[in-house]
Amino acid sequence: MSDADLDDRLAGPLDGALNLLDRQILDCEGRMLGKVDDLELTQQEDGLAVTAVLTGPAALLPRLGGDLGDRLVTTWSRLKVPEPNRLRPWRIDMDRVDRLDSALHLSVRREGVLTRDTEGYRFGTLTGMEASGPDDGHLGRVVDARFEPGLHGRLVVRHLLIGHGRPGSLLGYDRHDQQGPWLVRATVGRLHRSTGIVDIEAARILWNRREVRLTTPPRARPGAALGD
Predict the structure, then answer these.
(1) Which of 102, 154, 144 is nearest to 123 (CA)?
(2) Statement to judge: residues 42 and 73 lie in one domain
(3) Which of 144, 147, 51 lies closest to 97 in space, CA to CA?
(4) Spatial contact of 189 and 182, defined as CB atoms under 8 Å apart
């Protein structure tokens, strides 16, 4: 097994906002192509899978959410000469992805790899969705999703992280009990003391309403790293 195989984070569980979003995209020759601004999600036989990475302002700006995101998209759309589908983000199929370390590496050269995205589910829409419990009580929002390799080697959503912070704000402190300085670890643990994790089978995602309804409450803590 090569060092590249050992470093490939796509081979094991990872969190979308923490481990994938905002990573640089490099082609097979190490040339930059952009960064991961969002993820395309497609329902497959084994679950909701990452089928492409999305890049460009049309992918990034909607992640800001709310009226601000809408205003920025509108403003950006007026800055350049109109072109067909320019409000659709650029798409890179996951079949073109080789590995993930500090950057996302492609298995091909960057020329011709970008295509325009089609309408579909986005990870950036899932994160930030309001979450309610079995009794319709408000539990917070989706702050991240935990992926694992599925039947076809593509990353599939297995768990949702539910809390009151921003997507990715756990900073990995729920995954590693020795992550970072003690003071930072304690602060993140304090801020996310109500953050929990729930299996995707217990979640119903209402995309049109931007809401997640849970049939069981989240487990109290995503991991020992946010301990007392």
Answers:
(1) 144
(2) yes
(3) 51
(4) no
CA 107 – CA 123 distance, rounded (Å): 23
DSSP state of 18: I
The whole-model pTM stands at: 0.77
Count of domains forming the chain: 2
Helix (H, G, I), strand (E, B) or coil at 124: helix
Lookup: tokens for 57: 């302002």
Burial degree of 223 (CB within 10 A; 0-12, 13-18, 19+): middle
Residue ranges in 56-170 assigned as alpha helix (H): 57-60, 66-77, 123-126
CATH number of the domain bearing residue 43: 2.30.30.240
CA 62 to chain centre: 13
Tens-place pLDDT, residues 160-177: 999 986 655 444 444 445
The answer to whether the beta carbons of residues 103 and 25 sit under 8 Å apart is yes
Q: What b/e readout covers 190-218, taking b as 16+ CB neighbours within 10 angstroms? A: ebbeebbbbebebbebeeeeeebbbeebb
Query: 111, 154, 157: which is closest to 15 by C-alpha?
Result: 157
Residue carrying the six token digits 């998209």: 73
pLDDT in tens, 59-85: 888 777 655 555 555 555 555 555 566
What is the extent of the structural domain holding 186? 128-226
